[in-house]
Design a protein that fits this description.
The complex is a heterodimer of chains A (about 325) and B (about 120). Chain A has helices at about 25-55, 65, 80-105, 110-140, 165-170, 200-210, 230-240, 260-290, 295, 300-325, and strands at about 145, 150-155, 215-220, 225, 240-245. Chain A has about 325 residues and is α+β, with helices and mostly antiparallel strands. Chain A is elongated, with a radius of gyration of 27 Å. With about 120 residues, chain B is mainly α. Chain B is built from 4 helices and 2 strands. In chain B, strands 1-2 form a two-stranded antiparallel sheet. The longest helix of chain B is centred in the C-terminal third of the chain and has 35 residues, at about 80-110. The chains are: A alpha+beta (about 325), B mainly alpha (about 120). At the A-B interface, helix 1, helix 3 and helix 10 of A face helix 1, helix 3 and helix 4 of B.
């Protein structure tokens, strides 16, 4: 059997293997380098967001106006409270994770089980909250109209408060048309869902309600959106408007630049996917802890590795929170 | 393993302390984001609002705490720490510098160049 093993003659020497210059196991070191590469992916996304924002620096949507919902408080302007709560939930699940790692060092199985369970619950609450944020963003609130040049115009009253499309439009019941569907029309032609109001209904309503004004995307020095005079509003509405926008998708965005929506979906979606996969990996490790795998190994290093990934997800969220919601 | 089992008395106190600091920093950020003090918006440092500088510095501080305390980077060897942190910081700074400079240039072209993009 001696001949089956290749001997290099370097056993026990520095280059003979089994030597750990970084004093960590292979798995943990690779987790760190995976995190490094994943951090570069996220910074690529965030830097691209910065590029687009600098490109449209004087017309970018104001985050406070976009993300101002809170569960069970309908119609209350609550800028950023919910996303701050989400941040707390994620930081707290990071704390329970690090407590699980700490308990693992002391081989306290029951404590590891408890803390990992809390971490998983926190992660699930966070993913659910993100889904809720997406729902609000996709649904939109006030609605807006879009010009031929792709700019968004919103409606405000004389005091500068936003006015919803349903309060602007005068509905013309004769002109109503139903959405074309494959089952009752041409089977090979698709039509996206129709907006609640037509451009003409908006135009008629706007001319009739004389206290309404139009707010453009352009920001003034103080960071507020520019409000046009009544004459300029009418001229802009009648000459340039081509469509009605309600909510946001990848092509249209009632809050302003469609790029804002694209990056929102992409970055928070990619982060949400990380949280989701983190929860899945946590569940696998959780069951291993329950079965006593690491108890028999006398080492909870797997909990430590998955913990590194979980903290990284929290770390990314700290940056997403700053660049999407605060700055 | 091995290297860090010895120094583990218990980190629980420190974990809660770091959580407390992270919470305070987040609360400060949210409060500043809601009230937006006038002088912080009007003061510009290197072409960026003072308020935004504060947000970014606080964010980097939070990132430092999470990496060092929660991910236990402080206990790793110098070699591992530098190969992860320095690589990331260098590449990210480089990327941000290039893309933001370019974005600002495109903005100037839209604004002052002989091109119309809103028609």
């Amino acid at each position: 059997m001696e001949t089956a093993v290749n001997r290099t003659g370097t056993e026990g020497k520095t280059w003979g293997g089994g030597n750990e210059p970084l004093k960590v196991s292979y798995g943990k070191m690779m987790m760190w380098f995976f995190i490094l590469s994943d951090a570069l992916t996220f910074s690529g996304f965030l830097a691209a967001y910065g590029f687009s924002r600098f490109k449209f620096i004087n017309s970018w949507p104001i985050a406070d106006e976009v993300f101002n919902h809170f569960p069970f408080l309908h119609g209350v302007d609550a800028p950023m409270y919910y996303v701050a709560l989400m941040t707390f939930i994620l930081i707290f699940s990071s704390v329970t994770m690090v407590l699980a790692v700490d308990a693992g060092h002391h081989l306290k199985k029951n404590k590891v089980i408890l803390y990992m369970f809390l971490t998983i619950v926190g992660g699930l609450i966070f993913v659910g909250s993100q889904a809720w944020e997406w729902k609000n963003f996709i649904k939109g609130e006030y609605g807006a109209v879009e010009t031929r040049g792709g700019n968004i115009l919103q409606f405000v009253d004389a005091d500068g408060h936003r006015v919803a499309l349903k309060d602007v439009a005068i509905v013309d019941t004769h002109a109503e048309r139903t959405r074309h569907e494959r089952k009752n029309g041409l089977w090979f032609v698709k039509e996206p869902s129709l907006p609640s109001f037509t451009v003409n209904e908006i135009k008629n309503g706007f001319s009739a309600k004389t206290d309404l004004l139009i707010r453009t995307q352009i920001l003034d020095e103080k960071g507020h959106k520019t409000i046009l005079s009544r004459e300029a509003s009418l001229a802009k509405l009648n000459n340039e408007v081509t469509g009605v926008v309600e909510g946001a998708n990848l092509h249209h965005n009632e809050y302003g630049s469609p790029l804002f929506a694209d990056f929102f979906f992409f970055i928070t979606g990619f982060h949400g996917f990380h949280v989701f996969s983190g929860v899945m990996i946590n569940i696998v490790i959780f069951f291993n802890v329950l079965l006593g795998t690491y108890e028999r190994r006398k080492s909870y290093e797997m909990v430590e590795k998955v913990g590194l990934y979980w903290h990284f997800v929290d770390l990314v969220w700290v940056f997403v929170f700053t660049f999407f919601y605060l700055v | 393993m091995g290297h860090d089992t010895a120094e583990h008395g218990s980190n629980i106190k420190r974990i809660w302390k770091v959580f407390f600091i992270l919470s305070i920093v987040t609360i400060v950020e949210v409060i500043l984001g809601i009230i937006k003090p006038d002088f912080m918006i009007e003061t510009y440092i290197v072409r960026m609002k003072l308020l935004n500088w504060i947000f970014i510095i606080l964010t980097i501080y939070k990132a430092y705490l999470i990496t060092w305390a929660f991910m236990h980077m402080e206990g790793e060897t110098k070699g591992l720490r530098r190969s992860v942190v320095w690589t990331g910081v260098f590449l990210i700074c480089y990327l941000i510098f290039i893309l933001l400079t370019e974005g600002d240039y495109v903005f100037e072209v839209f604004k002052n160049g002989y091109k119309s993009w809103d028609f």
